[in-house]
Amino acid sequence: MPPERLKYMDTGKKTIFLVDDHVINLKIGANTLEEFYNVTTLNSGAKLLKMLEKNRPDLILLDIEMPEMSGYETIELIKNNEVIRDIPIIFLTSHNDSISELKGLSMGAIDYVTKPFTPTLLLKRIEIHLLIESQKQELKAKSIELEKFNANLQVMVDEKTQTVVELQNAVLKTMAELVEYRDQVTGSHIESTQRYLRVLMDGLVKNGLYREETAGWDFELMLRSAQLHDVGKIAIADNILLKPGKLTREEFEKIKTHTIFGETVIENIKQNTRSHDFLEQARIMAVTHHERWNGAGYPKGLQGFEIPLQGRLMAIADVYDALVSERPYKEAISHEEAVEIIKNESGTHFDPALVELFLSISDEFRSPQPAVACSA
């Protein structure tokens, strides 16, 4: 038998490269294996490496003691090559000491067979290792397939989430616009209060104020929800809502009901949707933004920490905008005057801690700022 043997490849069989510098060993090994595998015999490590440049077997049987390049040197070169490093290698050797075996295994061999080998035992060990390798490849393929599935699933989730967010925004924007169309004198009020609320919430984060209470908040969702804080005004009669002069006491009592109407409208919407978070934030702000720290507010006369933080924040944003904005029944006042009024209402109308925060960042209320994401 020639030292190298290349046969017609049976595509239904696994391929094994048998490497040994002794012709007799190659003949015995090939006769043992060729009934079950495609066998290529090579008589040196150098020829193996050359063959591996264009061919990839399912397993390599590699003799350790060979001239010029030993099995140890050969496997080291194979394991340092990313293209072929995963090919399973079984060492063949006449040594049966544990030190040699440990060295071979530590260098990346999957098994260690001593010569002369028993044919049936060699075949069984090859069969087991090829089965393991096949299962590894199958598992790897499944893993890749699962990764692709998860990636596609994440894309679907992201698209679904984006659809929900867009739906939320559309609902909020449409309802907010309904209020603006009816209450023309305060058309910019929604946008302005949203901006002031952003400044306050950024301040909360930066100063660590009410950290535990805001830990689970979605700040961007809250800012979108804030658009609905006056949605209840759609239920107020035009002759009151659009009155150019000062309201009578009775008319003011009617206006006050917009908080209850707002809560009712949002609760009705919640009954017909599964996504409640943004609506719940809107409901809280709609019904509590006119409550006062001392309990003298409306509609429920809540006091102190009974008022949700969302409502206490919106109260400052809402009042500041009302003070600095011109109305048919009043002139706008300066930023400095508005700040002084809010300062004087600390502990009566407003949460003292929030007033202190407001005073520290009030300059950011003075003129419009670019819309930026909350720092959360």
Name the average pLDDT: 86
By CATH, the architecture of the largest domain is named: Orthogonal Bundle
Report the span from N to C terminus.
76 Å
Task: Write down the overall geometry.
Answer: rod-shaped
What descriptors fit this protein?
Hypothetical protein af1432; alpha/beta; single chain; five-stranded parallel beta sheet; 6% strand; Rossmann fold; 376 residues; 15 helices
Characterise this structure:
With 376 residues, this protein is α/β, with parallel strands linked by helices. It has helices at 23-33, 45-52, 71-79, 98-106, 119-182, 189-207, 211-214, 219-225, 238-241, 249-256, 258-270, 277-288, 309-324, 335-344, 352-361; strands at residues 15-19, 38-42, 59-63, 89-93, 111-114. The chain has two domains: 15-117, Response regulator (Rossmann fold, 3-Layer(aba) Sandwich), CATH 3.40.50; 159-365, Hypothetical protein af1432 (Orthogonal Bundle). It is built from 15 helices and five strands. The chain has a five-stranded parallel beta sheet with strand order 2-1-3-4-5, with helices on both faces. Helix 3 (71-79) links the parallel strand 3 (59-63) and strand 4. Helix 6 packs across helix 15 (352-361) and helix 13 packs antiparallel against helix 14 (335-344). It is rod-shaped and about 115 Å long.
